[in-house]
Amino acid sequence: MIDNAESLSGPKALGTFLRTHRERVTPEMVGLPGSPRRRTSGLRREELAQISGISATWYTWIEQGRDVSISASTLDRLAKSLRMEPAAREYLFSLASVKDPQALPSSAAPDAGLKEYVNQLTCPGYLLDSCWNMLAWNPQAGALFSGWLGVDEHPNLLDFMFLHPLARQLVTNWPERAKRVVAEFRAETSHYPHSEAVRQSVLRLRERSNEFSQWWTQQEVLAREGGERRFNHPLSGEIRYRQQTFFPAGYAECKLVMLLPEE
């Protein structure tokens, strides 16, 4: 039976997650003696607290879903004591809203296989990193952004929108789209709050573009969404696309943008 009151985040969700994993770990798995008289095969709360070096009472409060502050070091000890796999550890820290100090930075550079996938798309497609640098694009995207992609040595979508003269000609209703782009980029920076590259990208654009600086200071935040994208192409005339954005597995800082032609 499904519990409709089950929480997917917050202290109660964290407590449930820890309890479930505690019940899966046997004393023998962590070097404690087992006993045939035990009522459960999993660890007791007191045992997990002991091997994790924290107070049994405090751990009980965590598992009960009380709103207590938990440090990264405490979560680290609990994850190790419970023999959590990387995905479970990541989820644990996410539930506690704490940054994992041992989290490995994901590589923003796509490998040859991912680039080949982009090339096989039949519609314009390209890969962006956390700063919206263009990491890869296919010939269809190159044709759409002719005069920029393939010309700029280090293409960046934000630079294109605010610093390249072609953008105001190519992008239909440029002021509305550009303002939304700023709000979407601000929303995405919440995923990289300590990224020096992102910070420098914002500072550089604020210095070089009055429009970007003005809209950035307005503190608008909008989710990056699909929808219609219109272009006034110098050779093809008006073109309409439906944008879809995907996040390739294994590339946390990459996003694949596809522009699907509208019929």
Automatic annotation (TrEMBL):
UniProt xrefs under InterPro entries: Cro/C1-type_HTH, MLTR_LBD
Organism field: Rahnella ecdela
Domain HTH cro/C1-type: 42-89
Listed SMART domains: HTH_XRE
Domain of life: Bacteria
PANTHER family attached to this UniProt entry: BLL4672 PROTEIN, BLL4672 PROTEIN-RELATED
Name recorded for this polypeptide: Helix-turn-helix domain-containing protein
Signal peptide as annotated in the record: none
